[in-house]
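Minutes, project check-in
Item: structure for the 64-residue chain
Input as provided by the requester:
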Amino acid sequence: MPKLKTKKMVAKRFKLTKNGKIKRSKANKSHILTKKTSKRKRRLRRATITDKTNVKAIKMVLHN
């Protein structure tokens, strides 16, 4: 049986935490930043935990 390959696109976007949760970066931080407040941009910098509805699918393509 061949080994399952990790989807590199997913591996770059998501990191697995020690407790098995999946960490991701927030969207809307790449362009059109002039109309966004400093407070909003600062919050977008921080990473967040992925919603539990997507965890199973992400872990499947990460193969962890």
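Outcome recorded: Residues 52-62 form the longest helix (11 residues).
No further action items on this chain.
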